[in-house]
């Protein structure tokens, strides 16, 4: 059998490799800044600056946030006030915080973010510098962009000449600087046997980096981390001590053990890290494992000590983070690269930094493919990385379960809910999907995972998001997210007049919520809970502060109530997917005869999605569904009673 | 129109692309089905597939190639797609040893979820990156022999061996299917009146007469 017969007809539609410079310059010309300029044409119904400003009192508290929410539900937020409004929508700030307090909190958050960046910078020098961690790990790192030496390119298949010559043309179009980087990398590879030693001697910087590490083993490990910087000639930046937060006594007794545990675990790590997206770090790892195994583990006891202690930064977590950083960069360069904004590599680096910091403070979640899609809008919207980071983090508090590895993930649960929703709201479509074997609804996976990022344009996504958040806005639920605050992000603001402010804010916010157009029946809970909450408010609410501002008992109560009143089940995103399915029901029922057809239809974005309509319909469907569920449950309990 | 084309085939073979993330699965897919390569293709979230229709002998074979996310935590959704697969292309990246080491894990995955008769080919992708090679061709060959897999080194970028890899898998599947068909015919012939039968000559090879991109 031959498959080579008609190669020539397969002329590549876009060229075998894209000329990146050319493409990005075209995109730059035709694209406008997607989300910061107000769009004059379709400005009829949305939250506009004048209305928004009119809601603030002299202290900067928002009065009647519900009114703002209503406006947002009509058509989103005017792009000029989007960054500010989003912070409230995501519960970064309570609507009743004063502007002074918010400023204080913002400052504290920025400082904390800077601290975290410095921690990460100590592990990899590029973080926080505006340079991508592994420049040549991305599109430009791909060594296929190199001028090739002739001996290495004897082609196996002559039928591919057409493509090969195309490739060569493309390659020549690439920036020279990348070639230089890649070349130095190649040189390194050729003499890899002595590279550690060479790096060690050249790299005084590295040994300064973690001067707390003593002993031969540690230095070797260190070098394998930092040799990258040498190779690629990254600008020299001052390192901070990774462990500077640890008291000197702790350092003495723990650091050595961390490092030896790290050394020992290289082996293990090689088996642990399943996903590799890059070359250079991988190379280091490989070669360490080949050259240094079997390695003598000097003190197993030390290692055990290190692993049992959670308070110290273990070498294992450092190595895991470095690995993650790799994966991040590979995805960052291919995220929203049609936006002119990301034509600037500094902006890509911002994205990479934020993801890297997040992965560092939340190693259980780390980095998962798709997170870059979720972060990207924040990087575009916020000039300050810290602000973008906090918003992203607040978003992830809602979505974190999607990225968990163990058990059914958030998305899988949502798909189950979606199936139930269809059953109770569109039985015809439900039947059709059952018949064609599409019960698992996997075609909706990406929508729920990336919140419609791949289905909608960038602008439409922003609108969709803010409308979804406005629909689901609930400060009570936000307190549940408060409980989820990652340890590294807990801030304590000085106790000052703001405490009073925030005690008030909780009360006021409740009043607000009653006004707000949420459809999920939470208001019952809000009123009954009111008295208990206000009495114990010692710390600012929604300030990512110490989580103990409710008593344990109240926390339990709030948690259970939150779960019962609103759970992952009735998050608006699931109903949005239901709305999309139902809106397109005719097309789906007419054109699909198997789940494959549905998957194709979704992946190729063949469905009509109109943001406003979708949200409006989702709200209706949710109402209908919750009503049905309520009556079903009531019926069940009656039956149960009569059976007894 | 696409629909009409879709229905014109004698066999539909489902093939899954598996392997760690970043090894080039999506580009292998686009090379085979659209003859396209994009260095910056977005990460695959969930599952995707594309089809290409080929002519083998006088038979039209529709190859439906499933592309799945390589990141481990997406397994919950990807594992569902082994069902019905008759072929698998297990891809690693010759410049990343780890992706080669993980081949065993993926084989385990296949054994756990896929049909036991699934035709598996292992592909060491990115073979154009000779200078960065971390896994030798011999190593790949050795593992393939040990595991009883077919093996090729491929480059989606330079369109090296991608056709051949899928061709081998499809050919092997076709061989099995037609052998089964023949066996069934023989049984039928022995048992009762002869049915109309086309003799399928598997060893003959013809060029691809028809190519189809489902997009």
From TrEMBL, chain A:
Listed Gene3D superfamilies: putative rabgap domain of human tbc1 domain family member 14 like domains, Ypt/Rab-GAP domain of gyp1p, domain 3
One Pfam family of this chain: RabGAP-TBC
Positions of the Rab-GAP TBC domain: 76-472
Signal sequence bounds: none
Annotated InterPro entries: Rab-GAP-TBC_dom, Rab-GAP_TBC_sf
PROSITE patterns: TBC_RABGAP
Record GO terms (molecular function): GTPase activator activity
Bias (Basic and acidic residues) ranges: 146-159, 166-179
Region (Disordered): 146-179
PANTHER family referenced in this protein's UniProt entry, alphabetically: TBC1 DOMAIN FAMILY MEMBER GTPASE-ACTIVATING PROTEIN, YPT_RAB-GAP DOMAIN OF GYP1P SUPERFAMILY PROTEIN
Protein name in UniProt: TBC1 domain family member
Naturally occurring in which organism (per UniProt): Zostera marina
UniProtKB/TrEMBL annotation, chain B:
Localization annotation: Endomembrane system
UniProt keyword list: GTP-binding, Lipoprotein, Membrane, Nucleotide-binding, Prenylation
Biased composition (Polar residues): 195-215
Domain of life per record: Eukaryota
Keyword Lipoprotein: yes
One of the record's GO cellular component terms: Golgi apparatus
Region (Disordered), start-end ranges: 189-215
InterPro entries assigned to the protein according to its UniProt record, in alphabetical order: P-loop_NTPase, Rab_GTPases_membrane_traffic, Small_GTP-bd, Small_GTPase
MF term (GO), any: GTPase activity
Gene3D superfamilies: P-loop containing nucleotide triphosphate hydrolases
Signal peptide start and end residues: none
SUPFAM superfamilies: P-loop containing nucleoside triphosphate hydrolases
Membrane topology qualifier: Lipid-anchor
Family as reported in the entry's similarity comment: Belongs to the small GTPase superfamily. Rab family.
The protein's name in its UniProt record: Ras-related protein Rab11C
Organism: Zostera marina (Eelgrass)
Lineage: Eukaryota, Viridiplantae, Streptophyta, Embryophyta, Tracheophyta
């Amino acid at each position: 059998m031959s498959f080579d017969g008609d190669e020539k007809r397969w002329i590549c539609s876009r060229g075998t490799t894209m000329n990146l410079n050319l493409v990005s310059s075209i995109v730059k010309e035709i694209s406008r800044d997607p989300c910061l300029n107000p769009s004059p044409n379709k400005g009829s119904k949305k939250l506009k600056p004048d209305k928004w400003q009119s809601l603030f009192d002299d202290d900067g508290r928002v009065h009647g946030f519900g009114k703002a929410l209503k406006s947002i539900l009509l058509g989103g937020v005017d792009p000029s006030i989007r960054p500010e409004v989003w912070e409230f929508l995501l519960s970064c700030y309570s609507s009743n915080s004063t502007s002074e307090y918010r400023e204080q909190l913002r400052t504290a958050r920025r400082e904390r973010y800077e601290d975290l960046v410095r921690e990460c910078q100590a592990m990899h020098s590029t973080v926080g510098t505006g340079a991508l961690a592994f420049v040549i790990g991305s599109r430009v790192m791909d060594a296929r962009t190199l001028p090739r030496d002739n001996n290495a390119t004897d082609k196996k298949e002559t039928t591919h000449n057409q493509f090969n010559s195309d490739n060569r043309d493309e390659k020549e179009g690439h920036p020279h600087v990348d070639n230089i980087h890649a070349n130095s990398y190649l040189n390194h590879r050729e003499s890899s046997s002595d590279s550690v030693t060479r790096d060690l001697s050249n790299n005084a910087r590295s040994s300064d980096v973690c001067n707390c590490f003593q002993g031969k083993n540690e230095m070797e490990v260190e070098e394998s981390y930092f040799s990258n910087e040498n190779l690629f000639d990254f600008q020299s930046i001052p390192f901070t001590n990774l462990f500077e937060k640890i008291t000197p006594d702790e350092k003495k007794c723990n650091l050595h053990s961390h490092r030896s545990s790290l050394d020992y675990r290289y082996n293990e790590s090689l088996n642990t890290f399943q996903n590799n997206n890059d070359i250079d770090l991988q190379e280091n790892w490989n070669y360490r494992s080949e050259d240094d195994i079997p390695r003598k583990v000097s003190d197993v006891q030390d290692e055990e000590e290190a692993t049992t202690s959670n308070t110290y930064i273990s070498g294992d977590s450092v190595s895991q983070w470095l690995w993650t950083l790799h994966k991040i960069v590979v995805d960052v360069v291919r995220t929203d690269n049609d936006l002119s904004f990301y034509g600037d590599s500094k902006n890509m680096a911002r994205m990479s930094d934020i993801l890297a910091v997040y992965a560092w403070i939340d190693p259980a979640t780390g980095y998962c493919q798709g997170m870059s899609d979720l972060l990207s809008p924040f990087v575009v919207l916020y000039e300050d990385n810290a602000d973008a980071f906090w918003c992203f983090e607040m978003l992830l508090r809602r979505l974190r379960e999607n990225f968990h590895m163990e058990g059914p993930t958030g998305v899988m649960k949502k798909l189950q809910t979606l199936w139930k929703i269809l059953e109770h709201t569109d039985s015809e479509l439900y039947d059709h999907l059952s018949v064609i074997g599409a019960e698992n609804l996997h075609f909706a996976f990406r929508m729920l995972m990336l919140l419609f990022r791949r289905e909608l344009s960038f602008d439409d996504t922003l609108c969709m998001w803010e409308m979804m958040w406005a629909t689901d806005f609930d400060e009570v639920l936000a307190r549940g997210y408060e409980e989820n605050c990652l340890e590294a992000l807990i801030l304590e603001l000085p106790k000052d007049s703001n405490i009073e402010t925030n005690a008030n804010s909780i009360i006021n916010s409740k009043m607000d919520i009653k006004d707000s157009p949420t459809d999920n029946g939470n208001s019952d809970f809000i009123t009954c809970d009111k008295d208990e909450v206000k009495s114990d408010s010692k710390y600012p609410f929604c300030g990512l502060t110490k989580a103990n501002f409710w008593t344990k008992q109240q926390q339990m109560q709030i948690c259970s109530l939150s779960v019962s009143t609103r759970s992952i089940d009735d998050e608006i995103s699931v109903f949005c997917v239901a709305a999309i399915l139902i809106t397109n029901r005719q097309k789906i029922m007419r054109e699909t005869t198997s789940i494959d057809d549905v998957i194709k239809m979704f992946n190729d974005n063949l469905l009509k999605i109109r943001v406003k309509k979708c949200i409006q319909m989702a709200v209706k469907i949710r109402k209908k569904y919750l009503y049905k569920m309520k009556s079903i449950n009531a019926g069940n309990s009656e039956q149960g009673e009569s059976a007894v | 129109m696409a629909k009409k084309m879709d229905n014109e085939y004698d066999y539909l073979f489902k093939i899954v692309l598996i392997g760690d993330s970043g090894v080039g699965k999506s580009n292998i897919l686009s090379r085979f089905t659209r003859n396209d390569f994009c260095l910056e293709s977005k990460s695959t979230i969930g599952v995707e597939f594309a089809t290409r229709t080929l002519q083998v002998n006088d038979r039209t074979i529709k190859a439906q190639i499933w592309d799945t996310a390589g990141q481990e935590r997406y397994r919950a959704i990807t594992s569902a797609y082994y069902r019905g697969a008759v072929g698998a292309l297990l891809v690693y990246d010759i410049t990343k040893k780890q992706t080669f080491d993980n081949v065993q894990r993926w084989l385990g995955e296949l054994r756990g979820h896929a049909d036991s008769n699934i035709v598996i080919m292992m592909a060491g992708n990115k073979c154009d990156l000779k200078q960065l090679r971390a896994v030798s061709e011999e190593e790949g060959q050795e593992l393939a022999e040990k595991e009883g897999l077919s093996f090729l080194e491929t480059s989606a970028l330079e369109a090296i061996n991608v056709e051949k890899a899928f061709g081998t898998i499809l050919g092997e599947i076709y061989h099995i299917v037609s052998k089964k068909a023949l066996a069934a015919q023989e049984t039928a012939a022995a048992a009762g009146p002869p049915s109309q039968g086309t003799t399928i000559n598997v060893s003959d090879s013809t060029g691809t007469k028809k190519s189809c991109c489902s997009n």
